[in-house]
Design goal:
The protein is mainly α. It is built from 16 helices and two strands.
């Protein structure tokens, strides 16, 4: 081998100490240095399947225990509180995910946190956006009749309040750089509200109009897809799915898709066995959509496999952009609330729109189950 070739091959193996000392000569006093060429270590063989599994942060036991606890909590609330209890869970998940992303924006843009402003945006977006996108499905189901503050111009008043708050936020006086960060923060909050409130509120509308069963089917399909991607991707994943989320692999993606589609008819039968039969008047009122046939479940499973994962990729890109591993630590082994509901947000909107295609969509006759 020629000397040029030997030098080229040895350059990547220069010791870190030698490189640092050479840099010191450029900006400080120069000292004669003898550079020692270190042979590059041979490449390590591919790790075994068990090694790759053990290397993942967060033990399987913690992750499985958290998953079972969440499923158990959902089952208990479904049995005790039925639709209203699940609506509160959805709203809590929306608020938790929004709060985590808002705090991440505060940290990334180096702005002081304003809890009053943060939650005022959430309340306005929730009341205005939800009623526009999904109809008046929230307040009547959660509040007693004496607290219904409806009047003919309620949506106009809510929208004007939003416009006034937005106008005041973008016309604040201050240093140019700080004002730019404030506007960037505002844009980030609006995108977060679109995801958490705009898309995520579909589950609330489903619970109100069609009951618990279609809601649980949609949620469980995403859960199965997420578990399948983990079970297949960790031991077998070798081909990166996207640079935005390096840990996701094509092997895990296709394995999760197959598992989700195969499990769809089984979940339908499980829900029928656990929740019982649907009253005939509800079937007639909703065009039969509450019966959850296998082909309808397969359509939902297809989107859960190929559409909903976009939420996870988008969330991973946001975390990489801010140098954050997880949005929070409220769920052991999983991260924060947003880490668990990112795919559910996209599934929520699709499920509502898909179910709306089959019946009159506004009957609200689904009942509690």
């Amino acid at each position: 081998m020629s000397s040029a070739g030997a030098s080229a091959s040895a350059l990547p193996a220069l010791s870190k100490a030698s490189l640092h000392h050479r840099g010191g000569g450029l900006f400080g006093k120069s000292t004669p240095t003898t550079i020692t060429v270190v042979e590059a270590p041979p490449p390590e063989p591919d790790a075994s399947v068990m090694t790759r599994i053990k290397s993942r942060k967060g033990s399987w036991g913690t992750r499985v225990a958290s998953t079972l606890a969440l499923l158990g909590l959902t089952a208990v609330i479904t049995y005790v509180g039925q639709r209203k209890g699940l609506e509160l869970i959805v709203i809590g998940a929306q608020a938790g995910a929004y709060n985590e992303v808002a705090k991440l924006l505060d940290k990334g843009l180096d702005l002081p946190s304003s809890l009053a402003s943060r939650w005022l945006w959430f309340i306005l977006a929730f009341n205005t956006g939800h009623s526009w996108a999904y109809g008046d499905t929230l307040m009547p189901s959660l509040l007693p009749s004496w607290l219904h503050w409806y009047w003919p111009g309620r949506r106009l008043v809510q929208y004007l309040a939003y416009v006034c708050l937005l106008g005041g936020a973008i016309t604040l006086k201050g240093p140019g750089e700080q004002l730019q960060r404030q506007v960037a923060h505002l844009a980030g909050l609006h995108f977060t509200l679109f995801l958490t409130v705009g898309l995520g509120s579909g589950y609330i509308a489903i619970l109100k109009q069609w009951g618990v069963r279609p809601f649980l089917l949609s949620v469980l399909l995403v859960v199965v897809n997420d578990i399948g991607a983990y079970l297949v991707g960790v031991p077998l994943g070798k081909t990166p799915l996207t640079k935005l989320s390096p840990k996701k692999s094509w092997e895990g993606f296709w394995g999760a898709a197959g598992l989700t589609v195969l499990s769809a008819p089984l979940i339908v039968r499980l829900l029928k066995a656990v929740l019982g039969s649907i009253p005939e008047d509800s079937k007639r009122a909703m065009g039969g959509w509450l019966s959850l046939s296998d082909w309808q479940a397969l359509v939902l499973a297809t989107f859960a496999s190929f559409g909903a994962p976009l939420g996870g990729i988008l969330a991973s890109a946001a975390k990489r952009a801010t140098g954050t591993k997880d949005f929070g630590d409220s769920i052991p082994g999983h991260g924060g609330v947003m880490d668990r509901v990112d795919c559910q947000l996209f599934m929520s909107a699709f499920s509502y729109l898909f179910l709306s295609c089959g019946g009159n969509g506004g009957g609200g006759g689904g009942g509690g189950r």
